[in-house]
Amino acid sequence: MADPKKLFIKTYGCQMNVHDSERMAEVLAGEGYVPTATADDADMVLLNTCHIREKASEKLFSDLGRLRPLKSANPDLKIAVAGCVAQAEGAEIIRRMPLVDLVVGPQSYHRLPAMLRATGPVVDTEFPPEDKFDHLPQRKGSRGPTAFLTVQEGCDKFCAFCVVPYTRGSEVSRPAVRILTEARDLVSRGVREITLLGQNVNAWHGSEGGLGRLIRDLALIEGLARIRYTTSHPNDMSDDLIAAHGDVPQLMPYLHLPVQSGSDRILKAMNRKHTADHYLRLVDRIRAVRPDILLSSDFIVGFPGETDTDFAATMALIRTVGYGAAFSFRYSPRPGTPAALKPAVPSDVADARLQALQALVTAQQHAAQDAMVGCETTVLYEKPGRMPGQWTGKSEHLQAVHVEDPNGQAGLIVPVRIIAASTNSLAGRRLD
Questions:
Q1: Is the pTM higher than 0.70?
Q2: CATH fold group of domain 376-430
Q3: Which end of the chain has fewer beta carbons closer than 10 Å to its terminal beta carbon, N or C?
Q4: At what angle do helices 276-289 and 239-247 cross, to 10 degrees?
Q5: Greater confidence, 90 or 397?
Q6: 31: Cβ–Cβ under 8 A, 6 or more apart, which residues?
């Protein structure tokens, strides 16, 4: 029997890419590839890229440059580029980096086996008519206690700063029956918590009732203890989905709800199609049904045309909401998007605003962590901690928690009292 081939995957960006990397590894397992932790001894290196943030293409080409000595030493080494930069750059990647053998978009990676058997460099960045999920291999073997499950891909919102509609395509929802079948299979192999994924996950329309109905159906699966979803859009928070946060115990009290700005003028320029007041009223409604919910958000600072007054409105919104976490970035133009054509805010101004915003959200994150001390929660053990007899997992609010528990094991959900807080994690004592 031939020795297995080694596959190294580097994943950039969001949870969708993490999930896609898992699925590509499963596809390539059928071709005899097994994972390896380093590119140095790999037979295939796959870079799964993200195009959302600044200088994504430059980062890719820099990483490819570092692979050149490996390719020189081993001409049989396969180098593949996947994900959103692959979709956006296409043949340009092959032109600039002839060492690349395969370029595959996020909707076409089920075709990797055929691409491997082709002669010469191959680019597949089409939006294929077939559903890639119909062609992916069935997931096998035991699983860890948590899993991602893609329910929706693409976006029809066309925010002025975002490339997702161009790299991921229009909104497509997977049918409910297939999602439920995959969820049951995951649970049968040890999964206790499922996070539903989508570029605009709460726009899922794979059956009547939308995402709220799907969550209620998933909650009926015996053994599925926790449900989460990300990333959502304020305009798609339906009444039933909001109600589910109060009605479904398995739906965890954490919600990532991006707003991007607190200025109505900037929100309009961003083509967000909601106002700051709409967002704040939405937060009030969600907290009315689930008062302990922890909210996180995304913020773009220095969007073209942003004034000191606009930025002050964003800071005011942050103070009003009180976030447990947030992701904030200085605006960077994405080629092909409407905002990329507009004059930029001076970089020193944008940098100063970003620092001020990050200081505020960091203070709120610290406050949310500190407020947990003395509280009881449950923790899903995911893996052993760094210290003997310690287990690490997530609280109901998605906070990392370290628990001293010599009898712990992966997949247990245990009651815990929080005894200490740090910036990025909590310490807990098991109660039962």
A1: yes
A2: OB fold (Dihydrolipoamide Acetyltransferase, E2P) (2.40.50)
A3: N
A4: 30
A5: 397
A6: 5, 112, 113, 116
